[in-house]
Amino acid sequence: MYTPEEFDEGKTKVLKYILYKKRTESEIRKKFIHTMDENMLTDIVEYLKEARLYK
After folding, report:
1. Rounded distance, CA 23 to CA 17, Å?
2. How confident is the model over 13-24, as pLDDT tens digits?
3. Which of 1, 10, 18, 32 has a Cα-to-Cα distance from 54 of 20 to 30 A?
4. Residue 40 falls inside a structural domain
5. Residue 36: how many CA atoms within 13 Å on its side-chain side?
């Protein structure tokens, strides 16, 4: 499990990554799978989709 602080930090990293250049979900997973918990990464992608920050 992860803390809210870890989630926010991870969300910021992913958001910066996708704002720099449009990325696919596969590219996001490939980039962060070794540095982030897989469950947290899935939750971040879902959060960004729900917030309409990522399609």
Report:
1. 8
2. 999 999 999 999
3. 1
4. yes
5. 24
What are 6's two structure tokens? 């870890």
Write the pLDDT tens digit of every residue in 22-50.
999 999 999 999 999 999 999 999 999 99
Give pTM, 2 decimals.
0.90
As a whole number of angstroms, the distance between CA 54 and CA 34 comes to 21
Q: How many residues are given for the chain?
A: 55
DSSP class of 35: T
Evaluate whether 48 touches 13 at the Cβ level (below 8 Å): no
The tokens of 2 are what? 């992860």
Contact 28, 18 (CB under 8 A): yes
